[in-house]
Design goal:
This protein has one domain: LigB-like (Protocatechuate 4,5-dioxygenase, Chain B). The protein contains six helices and six strands, in the order βαββααβαβαβα. It is globular, with a radius of gyration of 16 Å.
Length: 193
């Protein structure tokens, strides 16, 4: 069965404590609508590396890569089985496309992966590999990554990209020293995003 590649905006980690939010309800039903994939390759905007890097741990530990939120979030755990074979296969596809990917046997899953997956597949029983991004490189670079990984979809792998239209939580979090506000999140919100 072929699975799609999709982008979901996971919002702030506190989404998991806000069942009244439309995004919470959407993600809760979206996994059932998609069905159970053989595995998930999640691309998180919260893991940046200089070269494409894939997790290869037997079980992905929960990474709480945020601060200043409700203590209940830090107690949450989402620890899906890793998918080392999928990571090796993805690495081979990327190498075939001219990339120099790495495997990371220690990296867990950050909130860009576990927040949406906790709602979509709450049993944490689908094997997961997380892929890093190279935010200093172009959109064309990332498009090539996606093209190289496309064959995985035909093998029942859901490719799930996760992030936010604007990394400042679409204007809900004050900008810090040295941050720049592109305004993209507020423009997206005005368009109904």
């Amino acid at each position: 069965m072929s699975f799609p590649s999709v982008f979901v905006s996971h919002g702030a980690p506190s989404l998991l404590l806000e069942p009244e939010q439309p995004a919470y309800r959407f993600l809760q039903t979206f996994g059932a609508e998609l069905g159970q994939p053989a595995a998930i390759l999640v691309v998180s905007a919260h893991w940046e590396t200089t070269v494409p890097t894939l997790t290869s741990a037997p079980r992905l530990e929960t990474i709480h890569d945020f601060g200043g939120f409700d203590p209940a979030l830090y107690a949450m755990r989402y620890q899906p089985p890793g998918a080392r074979e999928l990571g090796v296969q993805a690495r081979a596809l990327l190498e075939g496309a001219g990339f120099d990917p790495r495997l990371d046997p220690k990296r867990g899953i950050d909130h860009g992966g576990w927040v949406p997956l906790m709602l979509m597949y709450p049993e944490a029983d689908v094997p997961v590999v997380q892929l890093s991004v190279q935010s200093r490189l172009s959109a064309a670079h990332h498009h090539r990554l996606g093209q190289a990984l496309r064959p995985l979809r035909e093998e029942g792998v859901l490719i799930l990209a996760s992030g936010e239209p604007d990394p400042q939580f679409a204007g809900r979090v004050p900008l810090g020293s040295g941050d720049t506000d592109t305004g993209a999140g507020r423009r997206f919100q005005r368009l109904g995003g």
